[in-house]
TrEMBL record:
NCBIfam families: DnaA_homol_Hda. InterPro entries: Hda, Hda_lid, P-loop_NTPase. Residues 165-228 form the Hda lid domain. Pfam families: Hda_lid. GO terms for biological process: DNA replication initiation; negative regulation of DNA-templated DNA replication initiation. This is DnaA family protein. The lineage of its organism: Bacteria, Pseudomonadati, Pseudomonadota, Gammaproteobacteria, Steroidobacterales.
Length: 231
């Protein structure tokens, strides 16, 4: 269960630590990069607004642990919460469970009880629970006091948005990893024309890569303008 769950959730191949530009989040990312099962605290809570890279980092943790031969699972609650809390069955036996968007299930008694039980199981087996939300633990709306206490009782880490220069660096890093060059002036143009959240920027960069290959053209500003205007 290192890379895929029975319910079909797969890790993105690109969501690894080497492709994540930490910027001002360097200390937080280094903590996450060096997480190991069996070391306290049981719970690590990551919070930050949309676009700070929470999902990327949770998947990177799973990928890294899987590469070390440890069992790990990534659970994006926004996508799978409707399937019911029964999907957590057996997760307490893993080395690490990463729960994305925990505020999605706030106020749902069944889910909250199941997550509290999961924390207990992982704690007893010296496993690791890594949780993300857009807000700190106390602001998630979790009603079960014991669960809320556990979520805030370990490490609580904050992720900050990248500034413009860091976003440009992150885009050029992603392009390099994908095997193509993103000129500085083209990256600057993308930030002027597109929403400035990294998820949208990276998604469009991948589209540009495909478009440039199909057209056999480099990622110049005129070419990128054509692609954007044609959407």
């Amino acid at each position: 269960m290192t890379n895929q769950l029975p319910l079909g959730v797969k890790l993105r191949d690109s969501s690894v630590f080497d492709s994540f530009l930490a910027g001002r989040n360097e200390s937080t990312v280094e903590i996450l990069r060096t997480l190991r099962a069996g070391e306290p605290p049981t719970c690590v809570f990551i919070h930050g607004v949309a676009g700070t890279g929470k999902s990327h980092l949770l998947q990177a943790i799973c990928a890294r642990m899987g590469g070390q031969g440890q069992s790990a699972a990534y659970l994006p609650l926004t996508d799978i919460a409707s399937m019911g809390s029964e999907i957590l069955t057996g997760c307490g036996e893993l080395a690490c469970v990463c729960i994305d968007d925990i505020e999605t299930i706030a106020g749902d008694p069944a889910w909250e009880r199941a997550l509290f039980a999961l924390h207990q199981q992982l704690d007893e087996r010296q496993g690791r629970l890594v949780v993300s939300a857009v807000v700190p633990p106390a602001a998630t709306g979790i009603a079960l006091a014991d669960l809320r206490s556990r979520l805030g009782g370990g490490w609580v880490l904050t992720l900050h948005l990248l500034d413009e220069s860091e976003q440009i660096e992150a885009l050029r890093l992603r392009a390099q990893i994908r095997g193509f060059e993103l000129p500085l002036e083209t990256a600057q143009y993308l930030l002027r024309r597109l929403p400035r959240d990294m998820a949208s920027l990276c998604e469009f960069l991948d589209e540009l890569d495909d478009a440039s290959l199909a057209a056999q053209r480099k990622l110049t500003v005129p070419f990128v303008r054509e692609v954007i205007d044609g959407k």
